[in-house]
Amino acid sequence: MATTTPTPHNAANPGDIAKTVLMPGDPLRAKFIAETYLENPVCFNTVRNMLGYTGTYQGKRVSVMGSGMGMPSIGIYSYELYHFYDVETIIRIGSAGGIADHVHVRDVVIGIGACTDSNYGSQFHLPGAFAPIGDFTLAQKAVQYAQEHKIHTIVGNVLSSDTFYGDDPDALPAWKKMGVLAVEMESAALYMNAARAGKRALCLLTISDCPFTGESLSAEERQTSFREMMEIALAIAE
């Protein structure tokens, strides 16, 4: 595939995007991060309202861009960032539903592995099941920063699901019994794309709801209140 930029999904030119990209699902969360944390942020993309910005944070050049919802969407954006824009690291900063008993609203989960019910990995024609994992060094730095700043984090396996409104009531309990911490919709595809490209990725998640207990945050809280997760991501950006 030709590596021409801009792409049909990203108006950025070569050099507009930093080596590290923070990637929330919600483009308005990307806008919030850019305006709240970055110095001199410049918007490099408005195509499909998938906002992207580049600025500096504590002297480091950092970009932030929305991914949209689901593995097909983050699959497109992360592929282009890795292959067309020379991005080395993508840190997903998203929301998730907590399913483990010890996971609660506003907890920060570091998804070191991502189970999935998706067929996304079939494109790689592997002779077995691929285990999508995050970058250990990034995860280690995230844990260290969180400990130093007294931020409660939980490290473990998450589920990247293709369905938000699932028809099988037994699905989440089945994943829960295997020790999966939380459910979201993007990380497995990001980890697979990173592995295929020889690049790095990590998934940081703030728990926005707990389907088994009914705990939840409002849409506005999801957009603006995940500061601890955002600050961990910015701190480990290189």
Automatic annotation (TrEMBL):
The record marks R222 as: Important for catalytic activity. It catalyses: uridine + phosphate = alpha-D-ribose 1-phosphate + uracil; a purine D-ribonucleoside + phosphate = a purine nucleobase + alpha-D-ribose 1-phosphate; a purine 2'-deoxy-D-ribonucleoside + phosphate = a purine nucleobase + 2-deoxy-alpha-D-ribose 1-phosphate. The keyword RNA-binding does not apply. Its EC number is 2.4.2.1. SUPFAM superfamilies: Purine and uridine phosphorylases. Residues 20-236 form the Nucleoside phosphorylase domain. Phosphate binds at G25, R29, R48, R92, I93, G94, S95. It is an enzyme of class 2 (transferase). Gene3D superfamilies: Nucleoside phosphorylase domain (3.40.50.1580). GO terms for molecular function: purine-nucleoside phosphorylase activity. Keywords: Glycosyltransferase, Transferase. Signal peptide: none annotated. The keyword Transferase applies. InterPro entries: DeoD-type, Nucleoside_phosphorylase_CS, Nucleoside_phosphorylase_d, Nucleoside_phosphorylase_sf. Belongs to the PNP/UDP phosphorylase family. Homohexamer; trimer of homodimers. Catalyzes the reversible phosphorolytic breakdown of the N-glycosidic bond in the beta-(deoxy)ribonucleoside molecules, with the formation of the corresponding free purine bases and pentose-1-phosphate. HAMAP family: Pur_nucleosid_phosp. This is Purine nucleoside phosphorylase DeoD-type. It comes from Anaeromassilibacillus senegalensis. The lineage of its organism: Bacteria, Bacillati, Bacillota, Clostridia, Eubacteriales. The gene is deoD.
